[in-house]
Amino acid sequence: MSITINIYYTGENDNAIKFAEEMEQSGIADRIRAEKGNLRYDYFFPMNDKETLLLIDSWENQEALDIHHASPMMKEIAALREKYDLHMKVEQYAGIANEGENEFIRK
Q: Residues 6 or more apart from 40 whose CB is under 8 A from it?
């Protein structure tokens, strides 16, 4: 079952944007995307909050996510977070297993 994590990075003076730019330019983001089990690693900027960055990070399963969390890249990410004085809010979602069928959930 896949796992999707939304991480909201918030800072001041465009620091969230600078963080994302450095993650991309340094190659860290591409290295994460290349990890086995990574399904998505993309940044977005909420229209109503210019000081926040949303990272949508998806993994095939908990094992792939655990391996990523144990990787040396986590120290690099933490150092950049500290450099840009960012605060985090994390939300985690589990995929729905529906035996290979694509169904839409409507409320």
A: 4, 56, 57, 58
The span from the CA of 92 to the CA of 107, in Å, is: 20
Q: Is the pLDDT of residue 12 over 50?
A: yes
pLDDT, position 106: 47
Q: Give me the pLDDT at residue 95, please.
A: 79
Asked whether 40 and 21 are in contact (CB, 8 A), the reply is no
Residue 77, H or E segment:
helix 73-83
Q: Cβ atoms within 10 A of the Cβ of 39, count? A: 15
Q: What are phi and psi of 9, to 5 degrees?
A: -100, 125
Provide the residue type at 93 as one letter.
Y
Mean pLDDT of 71-85: 96
Q: What is the pLDDT of residue 94?
A: 86
Supply the pTM of this predicted model: 0.84
Chain centroid to CA 89: 11
Q: Using CA atoms, how far apart are residues 13 and 101, in angstroms rounded to an integer?
A: 45
